[in-house]
Task: inverse folding
């Protein structure tokens, strides 16, 4: 069955709490960039996580756009967070990892939740935001032919009208099968300035990018054409990690294989796999993977801000 499309509304959904800055920007038609919060609560240690979040928001502002970090606090979906709210996400001991299926429960129970790519996309769309920046996409996990472990990020990209800037699919996943799934879902996958699809920590993956675009103006025009044609769903924009910050694919691949083996030995599965693997890879790499993660998020934020500005010129 084909999922029902989730288009971006002209006014924010009444269940959302928008910060004054974000509300004013959306009202005035100013460029806005959505940012996820799982990377804050479940992707990096404190206080590096809150420092990173504040820095990334600053990069977006420096690029001429308004940052809208998205999370659920006390059961309320929030679009745009204060510094104190970022601190809660970064340091509170009970912040759930919230994908799309979890939103009703977290809202109903009045809990705190850090939103994944899928949940952030949906809330961004309900707020009227078209551009979203993250680190890496979820996808088809290795061994999914027996576990059926496939991220909701993919189905959300297939139905929600938001352009997602990432450094590709997380390299702990099966990148080839993820690209095949995105094709089935009708999601355009665009390499920004690259013919090869990047793999998060590395600029290479052994997989060709299905499409290549070299300017934000072309990306914005592609967004306009897609949605004007009534083709529902998002666009995946793969922005390779900067050359000086990447970890070569063969080097990070060996660490991933070791971490995956430990994951199996410990019986870790489901939504706990990705946080464990990313944390373990930080340990195995002596912290190098964390620095690469931060560098690619910075790079994606710069591209996302430029894209939001370009989108404002064609929308």
Result:
């Amino acid at each position: 069955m084909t999922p029902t499309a989730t288009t971006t509304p002209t006014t924010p959904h009444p269940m959302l709490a928008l910060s004054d800055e974000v509300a004013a920007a959306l009202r005035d038609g100013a460029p806005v960039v959505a940012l996820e919060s799982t990377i804050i609560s479940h992707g990096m240690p404190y206080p590096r996580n809150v420092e990173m979040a504040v820095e990334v928001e600053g990069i977006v502002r420096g690029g001429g756009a308004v940052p809208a970090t998205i999370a659920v606090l006390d059961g309320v979906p929030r679009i745009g967070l204060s510094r104190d709210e970022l601190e809660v996400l970064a340091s509170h001991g009970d912040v759930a990892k919230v994908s799309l299926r979890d939103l009703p429960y977290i809202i109903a129970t009045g809990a705190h939740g850090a939103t994944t790519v899928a949940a952030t996309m949906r809330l961004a769309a309900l707020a009227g935001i078209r551009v979203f920046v993250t680190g890496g996409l979820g996808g088809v996990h290795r061994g999914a032919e027996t576990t059926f472990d496939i991220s909701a990020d993919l189905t959300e990209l297939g139905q929600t009208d938001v352009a997602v800037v990432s450094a590709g699919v997380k390299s702990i996943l099966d990148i080839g099968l993820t690209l095949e799934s995105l094709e089935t879902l009708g999601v355009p996958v665009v390499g920004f300035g690259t013919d090869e699809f990047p793999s998060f920590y590395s600029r290479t993956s052994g997989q060709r990018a299905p499409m290549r675009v070299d300017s934000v103006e072309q990306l914005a025009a592609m967004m306009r054409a897609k949605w004007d044609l009534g083709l529902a769903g998002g666009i995946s924009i793969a922005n390779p990690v900067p050359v000086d910050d990447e970890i070569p694919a063969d080097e990070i691949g060996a660490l991933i294989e070791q971490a995956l083996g430990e994951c199996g030995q410990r019986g870790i599965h489901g939504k706990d796999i990705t946080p464990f693997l990313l944390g373990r890879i930080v340990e195995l790499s002596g912290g190098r993977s964390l620095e690469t993660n931060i560098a690619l998020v910075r790079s994606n934020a710069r591209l996302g801000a430029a894209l939001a500005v370009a989108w404002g010129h064609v929308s």
